[in-house]
Amino acid sequence: MQSSLADRVTEQLRAAIVAGQLAPGERLAEATLASRLGVSRSPVREALTRLEALGLVRSSTNYSAYVWNPTESDVDEIINLRLMMEIYASEQVVSTLTQYDFDQLEGEIARQERFIASQDFIRLVSSDRQFHEYMIRKTGNGRLLGWWGQIMGQWEVLVARRWRFDTTRVIPRVLYDHRLILDALKAHDLERLITLHRTINKEVCEETKAMLREQAAQAEQPTLTSSQV
Question: What is the CATH number of domain 72-217?
């Protein structure tokens, strides 16, 4: 029972971090979170430990916990590792894909269309991950899937933050990029698929770093007092 409660609290806090309801750098006080979620401090403490293992929470030397605040170096590392894994997965399985696989990916894109229409961006983030994760799972390589999972929690935070920052421009590209990838998969065209992964990941990397710089600049701007207005 305690474990299932910790599972629920972990997912609630993870979703709040992805959605930006818990802001980057925000201090996570056990008592405050426990009161907000209507639970004791024990499942909150366990949830924070799990989220730290996922890279979504950071602990300081004074035993305080804070929401992960990504840097440009984090973005480079996450995107480059993701690119390496996606290219490897493509090399391993692109020639083995069948109509069943294409139907599964078509279904994921259809779900993404519904999530966009309803502006359910949290579920869209999850669906986006599932679309790319399909090829990782298809390799049957458990270690690869484990490494993928280690970075994708942080990736979800980054991509959701980027989508919120520039919704009208970025969101339509999700479907566009996924359809390009699916077309390359259907054609069993490894060269085109690798080129797409490189191009898309490079664009995402640069746009995400630019977003972090712009948000940091905005945060540094002084707030005018009433006497200064």
Answer: 1.20.120.530
Beta bridge mates, 28? 65
Per residue in 23-68, pLDDT tens? 999 999 999 999 999 999 999 999 999 999 999 999 876 678 999 9
SS3 20: coil
Q: Do 35 and 1 touch, CB atoms closer than 8 A?
A: no
How many alpha carbons fall within 13 Å on the CB side of residue 221? 7
Alpha-carbon Rg of the chain, whole angstroms?
19
Task: Return left, alpha or beta for 20; rule: phi > 0 is left, psi -120 to 50 is alpha, else beta.
Answer: left
Q: How far apart are CA 41 and CA 30, in angstroms?
A: 6
The model's pTM: 0.86
- Domain spans of the chain, in order of start: 2-67, 72-217
